Amino acid sequence: MRFRHHRTVIDSKPPVAWFEVHTENYMGGGAPLCDLDAIRRDYPISLHGVGLSLGSAEGVDPDHLARIRQVAERVEPALVSEHLSWSVSGGVYLADLLPLPMTEEALATVCRNVDQTHGYLRRQILVENPSSYLRFRHSTIPECEFLAAVAASTGCGILCDVNNIYVSAANHGWQTADYLAALPASAIGEIHLAGHSVRKLDDGRMLRIDDHGSRVIPKVWQLYSEALARFGPVPTLIEWDTKLPPLETLLDEAARAQALLDHERKSLGRADTA
Amino acid sequence: MSASHSAVPTLLEVQRALRRSLVEHDDSEAAGCILADGLAPEARLNVYRNTFIGALTTALRLAYPAVHRLVGPEFFEGTTRIFIEKEPPRGAYLDGYGSGFPEFLAQFRQAASLAYLPDVARLEWAVSRALHAPDVEALDLSRLVAVDPADYGRIAFVPHPSVGLVQSDCPADTIWRTVLAQDDAVMAAIDLGSGPVWLMVQRFATGVEVARFSEQEWRFANRLCAGQPLQKALDDVSGFDASAALAGHLAAGRFTGFRLETAP
Description:
The complex is a heterodimer of chains A (about 270) and B (about 260). Chain A has about 270 residues and is of the alpha/beta class. Helix content of chain A is about 45%, strand content about 20%. Chain A has helices at about 5-10, 30-40, 60-75, 105-120, 145-155, 160-170, 175-180, 220-230, 245-274; strands at about 20, 45-50, 80-85, 85-90, 90-100, 125-130, 155-160, 190-195, 195-200, 205-210, 235-240. Chain A has a seven-stranded parallel sheet. In chain A, strands 4-5 form a two-stranded antiparallel ribbon. In chain A, strands 9-10 form a two-stranded antiparallel ribbon. The model of chain A has no long low-confidence stretch (mean pLDDT about 95). Chain B is mostly helical and about 260 residues long. Chain B has two domains: about 1-115, no CATH class; about 135-265, no CATH class. Chain B has helices at about 10-25, 30, 40-65, 65-70, 75-85, 100-105, 115-130, 140-145, 170-180, 185-190, 215-225, 230-235, 240-250, and strands at about 155-160, 165-170, 195-205, 205-215, 255-260. At the A-B interface, helix 2, helix 3, strand 4, strand 5 and helix 4 of A face helix 1 and helix 3 of B.
């Protein structure tokens, strides 16, 4: 949820199960936090951070961690999530979710930083698979196995971004089915869906860019169904951060995800009784 | 990656190389660790650099909307690009990014013809700080009642984090308001030589307010907000009712606490 929709949500109380906000947007005081308090009275909130930089070789920024804890103490969120990426080097924040070399060293670094975060926040976090546009020559571990290893070592949950799997798989030639199969179903605490854009490069190749600025495409809906079949009916969020449409469009996308979730719940019910 | 190219770089080295690529536009080390796979490593790095610069430009545009309008989007983006390279953010809390932009503008030769620009930027930074300041309760006045009147001169106040004081040699507040209201007729009538202004910025429940103070009122408030004890803040202040001014600050909730300064 973005600031622009605060008032509509407070006034009209739309029929959705919960909302997610960017943790960084509520680190100050004033009107945004006041609105969030009001929304929190009617809905569970999930805090989704983009700035903790769990992959930083230099460790996570204690000031940023303290700010996250402050927001979490006020909002009492149902979920807190961050990304399998890094954004800080030499104390400079690079304002994007940068990819990690998939190495044993990076794995140990991420696990150390997630452990520290768990200890400081005194709660479990979810770690999300990012979209990526480059890979490192010296990577040795497939990203899906890397993420599964982080969850196994630290006890963190996984935020499975189905659109990101689709985007990265298309950009790097991975198999989406292999990716889903490598993730431990018991660790999946949330699913993200979003739209992405396609950039045509000079040589005619396509690069898919995760920009959260359009509707979810049919192939990602298809992958979402596969994810639900494998992980069960996990809480699902529609992300939309750029070229923001009216709230109705978002609610329409959310209703579509809800229908697939309900369908999954029903088929689970049949399986249980069979 | 000071060693040979065949050596596997450490995570620290990879991250430094990417920082140099994104911030300093130097791809020489980063490109060597990236798989080309049909697309040049430099083009892949560019995707991230675009997001880096785009996100920070947006953060600066949100903090400096009047500067953005005054110079136009193209000049703003060109200027912020140079500023971002010079002063990239030191933390992931972007509402706190950009404090150095007014000083940068003051030194930026290409903007020298707009003499009022740095002052408008200083005011906008104070407004942005006020907007995002943490929620802190104002000073409970009953705590002051408990102070022995003989100790009043030793009271040093803690200012509310939303309070900011700005001084400008031009009517920066009028320019700021008029630009944001997009009122070209008023803009054309602004007298840039109308003299200096002393401004108090503060967030109230209703929003951020920018008020004009007299020079004496402003100096007194500035000393109090800098944590000077009351007696010292009153030195050299004359020609206005300081107790009324103090009562005004207390009623407006400009302080969150106080301590008693020990005698030097």
